[in-house]
Design a protein that fits this description.
It contains ten helices and eight strands.
Length: 261
């Protein structure tokens, strides 16, 4: 679809509140899957690779999200600035387009792994970053693909646990995918950082994160939890307070610690 002017929503027009200088290479328009989708790769400036990679997971189709925001997710200033930020810290940032988010996301990971050598990526050192309605698809990827080392799951709809229907209800209200099945879909064997925004305005998110973290602790999962009690949804682009900036830094440090080759 052709992109429209973005909606008047600061979350769709703002960059991450913490930035670093970046002048690395950006390879845009790399075809993957059936060649109808493309991905962009943001490379570090000075290292020689191969690099660990952070894939920014999409849980909306481009058409559905474009109808909301006027832009594809991968073209939002927030996503582009996140990709630059991880590249500035020595990792590769990956953004991609979607028609069918579940299958296209799997195809993106498969492409990165199959072409790791030519892309200068370490195919078994891939992490995910997902927020909001994109998180259910990230959880699905964690359960579906080997070689995904870790994930940051930020102020997101998680899993329907303990009789909750929050994720199912969100998928009925918003055009997000929900390919999971409650506790059966809890990701095992991955290092996770889960971030909650205590003042999140979307119904069910804070409670869903609490239940997810409790489930992870009961399973003795490798899970780090950050509870930003004063945080709002999209605080990483809307809230430039020292606490918000520090949490962005902690997300980066987590990904570096898991993915730096």
């Amino acid at each position: 679809m052709s992109e429209q002017e973005p909606a008047a929503n600061a979350a769709f027009t703002s960059e991450v509140v913490y930035q670093l200088p970046y002048n690395g290479e950006i390879r845009e328009g790399i075809a993957f899957g059936d060649d109808s989708q493309i991905l962009d790769i943001y490379y570090p400036e000075t290292q020689t690779g191969p690099y660990g990679a952070v894939v920014f997971v999409m849980g909306f189709s481009d058409q559905a999200f474009g109808a909301i925001a006027g832009k594809h997710l991968k073209n939002l200033p927030s996503y582009k600035s996140w990709a630059r930020l991880v590249a500035a810290r020595g990792l590769v940032g990956v953004l991609y387009t979607t028609v069918e988010p579940v299958s296209d996301s799997l195809c993106c990971i498969e492409y990165l792994q199959a072409h790791a050598s030519e892309l200068n990526i370490e195919g078994n050192s891939i992490g995910l970053w997902a927020c909001s309605g994109n998180v259910p698809n990230a959880i699905h990827l964690l359960n579906s693909k080997q070689g995904i080392d870790s994930a940051v799951l930020c102020y997101g709809f998680m899993l329907d646990l303990n009789g909750s229907t929050g994720v199912r209800d969100a998928a009925a209200q918003f055009p997000v995918v929900n390919p999971n099945n409650g506790a059966e879909s809890f990701p095992e064997g991955n290092a996770l950082m889960v971030v909650r925004a205590g003042k999140d305005e979307f119904a069910g998110i804070t409670e869903g994160i609490e239940a997810f973290v409790a489930e992870g602790r009961a399973r003795n999962s490798d899970l780090e939890f950050i509870d930003y009690s004063d945080g709002v949804h999209s605080f990483d682009v809307l809230d430039s307070s020292p606490q918000s900036i520090e949490i962005v830094k902690r997300m980066l440090q987590f990904l570096e610690s898991k993915l730096k080759v």
